[in-house]
Structures are given as structure tokens and as C-alpha cells.
């Protein structure tokens, strides 16, 4: 039951640790898919090699008892059990791989409500710039110095800062992005974090990240949808900082 529990719940399956699969959570799922693909691939290629060697036929060799003849279907050598086995077994494997693949997708697509996250960022895309607005009641930690400036009182208030092409977020926080476009179609893309979502004119789109799942540091934000002559320069820096 331990192995079944490991496979159903999305942590590193103990079975794969002997193969070097030490990634936990959804990284463990990627490892599972890789291992299953490797196993199936080996079985297929070994079976193909066996058939190529065992059933090879050279000119002058006597006909093998299992040799095929044009226009003749070998009904007497059919085996319903084998047919069922190689139909049902891959079907079960395909269902399982689909199940574990949909689980993290559902996790990412299930956008949390604004009350359930630590920060809500209003993102506005415009040719060719990213604008980030923070909630009025959110105070940026004093050691956040990558974007914006301190006010006269020496306090960094988010309601006094709208940052352009630069965003600093605390580590280990749930962050929701409400994404809008003021002109044409753009795409909010952070490749290192695995987030990509369209910014559509007149439609608010949503995406979220858990900064606790990535290392603190600098990340790049790109526009992944061609939006005009300066599309390639529509870049921003996102900093995840330990508060």
C-alpha cells in the first residue's frame, strides 16, 4: 500500500528514489512520466529487435511455420489473450499518465480568490511596457530596493508606487496577477517559473504563482505574443526576495 499511496499522492514515489528521482511534488510527476516512457520505450524496441532477428528470412531458407502469406489470414494462430493484453495494458498506462498529468494542470488553472492570496498585482500590458500596481493597503518590506524609491518618511508604500518593467515580490507568498492589455494582444511569460498567459484587450485574465516554490533571485518577464515593432524589447525583471 505504501507504493500505491506514493503514486496516488503527488510526492516523490519511493520506488523511483533508487533511480535518482529525488524531486518532490510536481517534479516527482515529471520523473514518473519519464520513467514510464523509458520503460515502455525499452519494451517496444526490445520486442522489435526480437522480431527482426527471430523472424528474419533469407533467400533459400525454408518457410517458417509462422510466416505470413499474401491474402491468407492465419486464424489458427490468433490469440485473443495476447490481443487483449496489448490493448488493455497500454490503455491503463495511458489513463494513469493522463491522470497524473491533469492533476498539476488543474492545480495551476484553479485560480485562488483574492482573499486567499497574500498579494494581488494588477498587471497592465501596453506597447511596449509592463506596468504593475499593488493594493493600497500593502506595505513593501523596507529591504526591498530593486524597484521604486522610498518616500519622504523613509517608508516604501505600495500605494505610492506603480512600477514599470520591474517587480519585487516576497519569497514564500501566494501572488495573484490580474492581467489586462490597453492596446493589442500580449502574453505574460516567465519561462523560469513556468507561467504563460495572454493579456487580452478588454478582457481580464488571471494567473498566479507560489513564490515559495522557486528560489529567491531575478527572473525575466517576456511578452510571448508579437505585439509590434518593439515586441522584442517588451521585457521586465521580477525579483523574488526573502523578506
Write out key terms for the chains shown.
243 residues; alpha+beta; Immunoglobulin-like; disordered N terminus
Distance between the termini: 41 Å
User: How much is the radius of gyration in Å?
Assistant: 27 Å
Strand order of the largest sheet: 3-2-1-5-8
The appropriate CATH architecture of the largest domain is: Sandwich
Can you offer a commentary on this structure?
It contains four helices and ten strands; from the N terminus they run ααααββββββββββ. The protein has helices spanning 2-8, 14-17, 25-54, 80-109; strands spanning 119-126, 129-133, 162-164, 166-170, 174-181, 186-190, 195-199, 205-210, 217-223, 235-241. It has two domains: 2-58 and 76-109, no CATH class; 115-241, Cupredoxins -  blue copper proteins (Immunoglobulin-like, Sandwich). Mean pLDDT is 76; it is low at 1-26 and 155-159. The chain is α+β, with helices and mostly antiparallel strands and 243 residues long. The strands form two sheets. Strands 3-2-1-5-8 form a five-stranded mixed β-sheet, with no helix packed on it. The protein has a five-stranded mixed β-sheet with strand order 4-10-9-6-7, with no helix packed on it. The two termini are 41 Å apart.
Strand and helix layout:
Layout: H1 2-8, H2 14-17, H3 25-54, H4 80-109, E1 119-126, E2 129-133, E3 162-164, E4 166-170, E5 174-181, E6 186-190, E7 195-199, E8 205-210, E9 217-223, E10 235-241
Parallel strand pairs: 1-5, 4-10
Antiparallel strand pairs: 1-2, 2-3, 5-8, 6-7, 6-9, 9-10
Amino acid at each position: 500500500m505504501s507504493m500505491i499511496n506514493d503514486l496516488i499522492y503527488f510526492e516523490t514515489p519511493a520506488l523511483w528514489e533508487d533511480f535518482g528521482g529525488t524531486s518532490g511534488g510536481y517534479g516527482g510527476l515529471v520523473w514518473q512520466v519519464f520513467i514510464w516512457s523509458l520503460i515502455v520505450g525499452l519494451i517496444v524496441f526490445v520486442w522489435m529487435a526480437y522480431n527482426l532477428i527471430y523472424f528474419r528470412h533469407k533467400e533459400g531458407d525454408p518457410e517458417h511455420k509462422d510466416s505470413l502469406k499474401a491474402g491468407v489470414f492465419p486464424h489458427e494462430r490468433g490469440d485473443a489473450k495476447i490481443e487483449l493484453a496489448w490493448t488493455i495494458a497500454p490503455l491503463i498506462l495511458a489513463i494513469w499518465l493522463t491522470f497524473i498529468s491533469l492533476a498539476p494542470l488543474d492545480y495551476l488553472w484553479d485560480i485562488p480568490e483574492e482573499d486567499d492570496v497574500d498579494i494581488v498585482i494588477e498587471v497592465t500590458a501596453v506597447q511596449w511596457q509592463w506596468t504593475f500596481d499593488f493594493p493600497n493597503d500593502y506595505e513593501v518590506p523596507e529591504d526591498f530596493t530593486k524597484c521604486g524609491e522610498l518616500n519622504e518618511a523613509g517608508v516604501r508604500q505600495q500605494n505610492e508606487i506603480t512600477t514599470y518593467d520591474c517587480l519585487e515580490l516576497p519569497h514564500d507568498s501566494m501572488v495573484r496577477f490580474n492581467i489586462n492589455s490597453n492596446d493589442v494582444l500580449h502574453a505574460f511569460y516567465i519561462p523560469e517559473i513556468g507561467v504563460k498567459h495572454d493579456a487580452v484587450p478588454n478582457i481580464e485574465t488571471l494567473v498566479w504563482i507560489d513564490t515559495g516554490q522557486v528560489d529567491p533571485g531575478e527572473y525575466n518577464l517576456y511578452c510571448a505574443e508579437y505585439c509590434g515593432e518593439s515586441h522584442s524589447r517588451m521585457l521586465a525583471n521580477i525579483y523574488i526576495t526573502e523578506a
